[in-house]
Amino acid sequence: MKQSILLTRITKFLQESAQTLKLGLPVIIAQLLQTLMQFVDTVMAGHVSSQDLAGLAIATALYHPVFLLMLGILIALGSIVAQLYGAEKPAEIMQNVIQGLWLSLVLAMLSIVILANPEFILHAMGYEEKVSQVAGDYLKALCWGMPAVYAYLVLRMFNEGLSVTRPNMYLSLLGLGINIVGNYALMFGHFGFPALGAVGAGWTTSMVHWFMFSAMLIFCLRASLFESYRKFLSFSWPNWFNLREILRIGLPSGFSLAAEVGLFAVVSLLMATFGVTAIAGHQVAINVASITFMVPLGLSMAITIRVGQAKGRGHFQEARYIGYAGILLCILVMSITALTFIIFPKLIVGLYTNDEAVRILAVQLLYMAAVFQLSDGMQVGAMGALRGLKDTRVPLIANLFAYWGFGLPLAYLIGISYNYGPVGMWGGLIAGLSIAAVFHTWRFRILSRRFLIVSPSI
């Protein structure tokens, strides 16, 4: 009897995991392709000059926190669309998409105001003139693509909220191709274009953003898949009722993402106190971990969609199970990457550097990253489940405490005060992520149970 029950549970988990993977795999591939675009920009800039590479790195460090904050806000639209899709309310879906496009324009203008004139910050940080010029010109070129990339995110959330995840993957693949060709032309001066160095990568990125937005817009306006939604498409001015709902969910989500990214940014800056070897070793390990993080991140978005759709249908027991199964799937997937880090650390690190001192430290950090993977997988899976329930405020408070109130002070205490170096600082990171992971999972348990008590599922 017990074996039969266990087999039934395993079968059900595998079926749920298969659905989440089917939905999330295109998202994972798209995330990896977009990460590869940044990698291509960095590698090609390195072949121009060290100043161009440094300028690109600085500009990217300034751009990412702003972009990720806005991304976190717009991701809220995915959970809203998913719940409305489950509730079979196409008219309200279109209202939210239109309002999302208005919001994307506002966020684009705000981003441009922040990033278009970085000279004061660059001068205050004391970078050499050539590096500052490259960074500033790169950001100005990037600003031309801001309206497109945020509008694209809105259309992407519309698609993903309806469980349509492949278009983003295909467009990301085309975008990568355009990015490589555009960089070749604009960075090195081919096909009759002037050689703009790293600044050319900024113009290419803007061009890719406009291409992807235009292609996604055409797809949404012409695909038969969306025919039942287009009849509700009409012009409307900004509506505070819809915008308030997006911002209510999106602002905490955006700041929550920024809190996590900010933690890693500060730790990276503190690594400078241990010297060049520590910076390099940390960069290798964190780069590897950030690549593998794309997998649970994609699954997290799929979990948000599936939990949101189930909640929209009023199937709260199903939403609860999807959330739990998704969190467990993220942990299992990251267990595989953790084992890879433990078994093949030298092989992985060898792909990045031949410096023996850097390799020794990076291997040590990869062992710690094995634990890091499990915590990160659990917390991002739970965050995805909570977003599906439109719960973002309490997770934000939890993240601020876990990352900034506990993780960062502990990293500083162990790594710098107690002189355990980079390994000690990573201990703080793991502790902060672990607290966030446990809290978010506990929060999903409490919240999903509350829905069941208030309105028992069918």
H-E string: HHHHHHHHHHHHHHHH
How large is the count of helical segments? 16
Q: What coarse outline follows from CA principal-axis ratios?
A: globular
Mean pLDDT: 90
Task: Outline the low-pLDDT stretches.
Answer: none
Helix content range of the residues, please?
over 70%
What features would you highlight for this structure?
single chain, 458 residues, mainly alpha, 2 domains, 16 helices
Write up what this structure looks like.
By secondary structure, the protein is an all-alpha fold. The protein has two domains: 26-238, no CATH class; 251-458, no CATH class. The protein is built from 16 helices and no strands. The chain starts with a helix and ends with a helix. The mean pLDDT is 90.
Q: What does the secondary structure layout of this molecule look like, with pairings?
A:
Blueprint lengths: L1 H45 L3 H37 L3 H26 L3 H6 L4 H15 L2 H16 L4 H23 L9 H25 L4 H4 L9 H31 L5 H37 L3 H28 L1 H6 L5 H33 L4 H25 L3 H34 L4
Please sum up the structure shown.
With 458 residues, the protein is mainly α. It has 16 helices and no strands. The chain has helices spanning 2-46, 50-86, 90-115, 119-124, 129-143, 146-161, 166-188, 198-222, 227-230, 240-270, 276-312, 316-343, 345-350, 356-388, 393-417, 421-454.
